[in-house]
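Table S2 (continued). Query chain:
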Amino acid sequence: LCLNSHCHPCLQPSCFGYPISIFFIVINEFCERFSYYGMRAVLVLYFKYFLHWDDNLSTAIYHTFVALCYLTPILGALIADSWLGKFKTIVSLSIVYTIGQAVMAISSINDLTDSNRDGTPDHIAVHVALSVVGLILIALGTGGIKPCVSAFGGDQFNDDQEKQRTRFFSIFYLSINAGSLISTIVTPILRGQECGIHSKQRCYPLAFGVPAALMAVALIVFIIGSGMYKKVQPQGNVMVQVSKCIGFAIKNRFRHRSKEFPKREHWLDWASEKYDKRLIAQTKMVLKVLFLYIPLPMFWALFDQQGSRWTLQATTMDGNFGAIQIQPDQMQTVNPILIIIMVPVVDAVIYPLIKKCGINFTPLRRIAVGMFLASLAFVAAALVQVQIDKTLPVFPAAGQAQIKVINLGSANAAVQFQPGLKNVTVESHEASDYMIFKTSELNSVSVMFGNQAANPGMDLLDGERQTLAVKNVGTTIVAEWLHDNITSKPEEGNNLIRFLNNMDQPINVSMAGTHFGSLPSLSASNYEAFSRGSKKITGNTASLSCEVSSKTFGFGSAYTVVINGCSGNILNATYVEDIPPNTVHMAWQIPQYFILTCAEVVFSVTGLEFSYSQAPSNMKSVLQAGWLLTVAVGNIIVLIVAGASKLSEQWAEYVLFAALLLVVCFIFSVMAYFYTYIDPNEIEAQLDEDEKKQAKKDKDPEKEVEAVSRM
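Corresponding output:
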């Protein structure tokens, strides 16, 4: 193994012409990306359903975390290049990363603080604190090793292995996409399982635990290959040099701000007293590209909402794809699947076709088109949201009450809401829709079955839904107020089911293993959550035992199941829809994902290629840091815009983001119009020529002095 630059060409163990060490690096990257994207896929739903944060707070914390993940790579690069070296940095921060993933898995264990075993944590603050610690450690880990692993892989090759190095990077990025794709499919399935010691819950510990295990595997695999790695010693970070050069130029210009000092061609030329001409010229090229980066964060502000707003949008949609049931967080897999398809199609088909049409589709034009497409994707998301909003139930506000009437009797019931607010006729064994009343105006309710009339007492709760169950029994009218206790759509696409006993005797009811207890006549159980599908309902009275398979429940509905009696061991049940199921199919999200993926292909891939083509090779790390910084700032923009907009409608927020990106796209197009493309190689060659001339000049005076001394 060669560890210094003075020895003979390195004799590393190889396989098919590749250093064996790179196989450990590729496996490490696959496991690490599986760990990161798997955890991130379920993160926003963990915030919403486990920590019980609302949509806005869940979105804010999610984007804060992502922003932190893209800020820390700068720290990782500085540590690796200036202090520890790439190998030690990867190992050290991978340990931090693994601990962070383990802490996240522990934070999601419901039984950790559920001492009364009621199915909910008693001290949610403990879980929040652990989650925050875990996320900070993960952000430090994943961000810190991000700039090191690919560069460390490149270090394993000798100078004469350029072809193998290029192919390695292709395999390396394939492993990233494979880890992302597989984890985004698997972890939502793990989350959908039920687990727990005392009470069964969505299995977030498993969804976070498997990524934690994969990160531990990534660390172990990487350490196993330690003896085979070529470890380059830290040689200083060019970002530090560039920053110092810029800082000195600004400081020096400020010192010489008086008019008596002649102006210089470029403000960076004020650094020439301390820094060489080459570094100043390279820094100028880098700053020219970084200036174009200024509008780019707005693209990432929209792009990264796939994991937050779009996932939350999917929770209100129908995920039934026939034999397959798609979880809301699994819709994110559409992006990596389309990326794998679209990148070769765009490179091999779309770009050549555009070129044949005589259109000069320059890199900056591609980036502008990518921004426009991302804006279009959010318009598509807004149109889907408008359709979803039409299906969402309306709940009462403060000062209002919502009332539904269920007629359990054998004749039609006429119900009057006094004084003269509303009259409604409900047919036998049917129910009315929910009706909204101001609690201050509704004084009484009267119920009539034919000539029989009754005035049940009022039992209104402000800002809540209630059901009035009415029935004619002989010559009397029975009425019962039922408190619904539902204030939102059922969580996670579940269905809320309760039972109402319409028999003249008590009945014990259970469904799919969940016991609702003994229900007296004309009383209702509490709602319980059930997943999609048909369930077995069992009813037992003192003398009868009967059962029936329920109707097939969809996603996000609520039903009152009325038990009317038993007939030949078959339970007679009718269904009253309290909240309609999700009817807008998740497939309607595919167009917005497709448009956004097209945007990513022409924006992200082109952006990096353009950056590298416009700056010196030794400045790639500076541009990579700048590129990652645009992602971080983009996520911060989401926090600012979503927090400041105060829009009550989600579709309006989508339109706002689309409009903002459209404005930024126009600004970028103007900046791109005035941009002049350069060839860094030509500039470098010119610098080399200038340095040779300068060296020659420096030698000539020495010769003159030598000649004079001989005379």
